[in-house]
Amino acid sequence: MTHAPTPPARSEPTVRRASRPRLLDAMARRVLVVDGAMGTSIHSCPTCRHEDYLGRENCTDILVRSRPDVIRGIHESFLEVGADVVETDTFGANRLVAAEFDEELVSWVPELNRRAAEIAREACDRYATPERPRFVVGSMGPGTKLVTLGNTDWPTMLASYREQAAALLEG
After folding, report:
1. Distances (CA, A) of 114 to 54, 111, 154
2. Which H helix or E strand runs over 164?
3. Do 171 and 118 form a contact (C-beta atoms < 8 A)?
């Protein structure tokens, strides 16, 4: 029986220290409402056009670059109906998934993550009050390459997620 290698030990993630206690405090006081499905919202968007994907069909993460107004509008639609937490439009915005499209998209991965976090933060800041802060969480999907199936290895996957997380935190 073959086992997947054990991932390397994690170091403490870098987190905006001011946000972490506020989020944990809010979670301790009440149930927080998280936004709905970003992907579903994008695919049902009546103003999105084929050209918005910049030649990368179904690469929804690219809309933070080509149509930030759409992504901001989706975040705001969830905040308007009471969401406390919104997820960034970055479910597939990592090096492994981007490589399935092209090398140019791979080079945009840090920018896409930073910009997605900025857009979500801007939307939350518009709706936040001292009594009811709004929070952004970074969306990091499982991707399409799995260590357990031999599609990639731990160091490559870990580097991809680290790059994505670092860029999300910058935003």
Report:
1. 19, 5, 24
2. helix 154-170
3. yes
Q: State the residue range of the domain holding 92.
A: 32-170
Domain count along the chain: 1
3-state percent helix, strand, coil for the chain, nearest multiple of 5: 50, 5, 45
| H-helix segments, 30-147 | 38-43, 63-66, 68-80, 95-98, 103-127
What's the rounded Cα separation, in Å, for the pair 66 and 122? 17
pLDDT digits (tens, 9 = 90+) for 80-111: 999 999 999 999 999 999 999 999 999 999 99
Say if 59 falls within a structural domain. yes
> Does residue 45 sit within a domain?
yes
pTM score, whole prediction = 0.87
